[in-house]
Write a structure and sequence with these properties.
about 40% helix, 5-stranded antiparallel sheet, alpha+beta, about 180 residues, about 35% strand, 5-stranded mixed sheet
């Protein structure tokens, strides 16, 4: 797995694309499993008699939805997945791209924020982890997790992203960050 972070900034916002690059063996195992499950579903639907279809229409639709939103979405994520991240001095926005579709952009405002690298594991001598954004509740003053990236990325690339966020937002609303 060699996920990577692509960073861009316009001086006001920081844009990051965190791309999934799954291991080829995992892809090779996942593709036939999902393919066989999808083919089985299609064959099952095609062999139904019209009088049987009315009796099991709802379970058939539920099974198709589970297949579409589970294994097929997972397959698309592992082949084409990207996480889009936009950080401004006032909000963090993110969306997930599955190759064929992109989820709606979700924007989370904050008044004070910190960031930190969350180590998950090590692969080929490279520490991989996620970026966590924490904001402070204006009512209670307590820290709350605002967003954690989904894709594991190398520590040096996450730190480069954090540095660009600090530089671009000029630390006005970012209390600090730790790279522990």
């Amino acid at each position: 797995m060699k996920n990577s972070v692509y960073i861009n900034s316009d001086g006001v916002n920081v844009y990051a694309n965190i791309a999934v690059k799954s291991h080829p063996i995992g892809k090779a195992l996942l593709l036939p499993i999902v393919g066989m499950a999808t083919l089985g579903y299609v064959v099952f639907c095609c062999t139904l008699q019209p009088e049987e279809l009315t009796k099991i229409l709802l379970p058939t639709l539920v099974l198709g939805a589970v297949l579409a939103f589970g294994p097929i979405r997972y397959l698309l994520w592992n082949f084409l997945g990207k996480e889009y991240l936009i950080v401004t001095a006032k909000s963090v926005s993110y969306a997930y791209h599955y190759g064929l579709f992109t989820t709606r952009v979700k924007t989370l405002p904050y008044s004070r924020m910190t960031m930190k690298f969350l180590p998950e594991r090590e692969a080929d001598g490279i520490e991989l982890g996620k970026l966590e954004f924490t904001h402070y509740n204006q009512t209670t003053g307590l820290p709350e997790v605002l967003h954690t990236t989904t894709v594991l990325a190398p520590k040096d690339e996450i730190e480069a992203l954090m540095a660009e966020i600090v530089k671009t937002t000029e630390l006005k609303h970012i209390e600090g960050f730790s790279n522990n």
